[in-house]
Amino acid sequence: MIDINLTIVIQVVQFLLLLFILNRFLFRPTINLIEEREQKITTWKEETKNFHESMQERLQSYENQILEAKAQAQEQQELVTVELQKEEDKKLEAVSEEAVRIVVSTREKLQEETELLRGQLREQAEEMSQLVAEKVLGRKA
Predict the structure, then answer these.
(1) How far apart are CA 122 and CA 130, in angstroms?
(2) Distances in Å between the alpha carbon of 121 and those of 76, 118, 138, 140?
(3) How far apart (Å, rounded) are the C-alpha atoms in residues 118 and 105?
(4) How far apart, in whole angstroms, are the C-alpha atoms of residue 95 and residue 98?
(5) How far apart are CA 15 and CA 7, in angstroms?
(6) CB–CB of 117/106 below 8 Å?
(7) What pLDDT is recorded for position 2?
(8) What does the angle CA 35 – CA 40 – CA 42 come to, to the nearest 5 degrees?
(9) What per-residue confidence (pLDDT) applies to 128?
(10) What pLDDT is recorded for position 102?
(11) Rounded to whole angstroms, what are the CA distances from 70 to 22, 49, 73?
(12) pLDDT tens-digit map of 10-56
């Protein structure tokens, strides 16, 4: 049979006592610290993921707003261009109408002056013909 002496029992008791002390004051706190740290890391990863998703949503929102602003600016630019073209067309039409009016007025004035000058030329021609006839005939008509 195996002889159990007191030193082996003391060593087993010491070992169990050491195991209890290490478990209570070293292993459990260390395991708890590791678990807490892993939990914090997991929480931080989730927060980082949520933050990243939030930033992606904001970025997408900002990009959409930029696209909307560009579309509105393009639309406004087109409206302004159309308005400017309309104004230019109106001004050109007004200038054309004024030019036509001036041409018509000038033609009328020229026609009036032509008629007036023709009348004056007829009178002068009659006077000249009377003078020529008087000179040729030597008497007054």
Answers:
(1) 12
(2) 65, 5, 24, 21
(3) 20
(4) 5
(5) 12
(6) no
(7) 65
(8) 95
(9) 87
(10) 94
(11) 69, 31, 5
(12) 999 999 999 999 999 999 999 999 999 999 999 999 999 999 999 99
What tokens does 68 get? 């909307």
Q: How many alpha carbons lie under 13 Å from residue 19 in its C-beta half-sphere?
A: 6
The string of DSSP codes covering 56-115 is HHHHHHHHHHHHHHHHHHHHHHHHHHHHHHHHHHHHHHHHHHHHHHHHHHHHHHHHHHHH
Scan for tokens 């023709």, then name that residue.
118
pLDDT tens-digit series, residues 109-141: 999 999 999 999 999 988 888 888 888 887 665
Residue the block writes with tokens 């600016």: 73
* Phi and psi angles of residue 2, each rounded to the nearest 5 degrees, phi first: -90, 135
If you compute the radius of gyration of the chain from its CA atoms, what whole number of angstroms results? 59
Q: Residue 138: which region, alpha, beta or left (left: phi > 0; alpha: psi -120 to 50)?
A: left
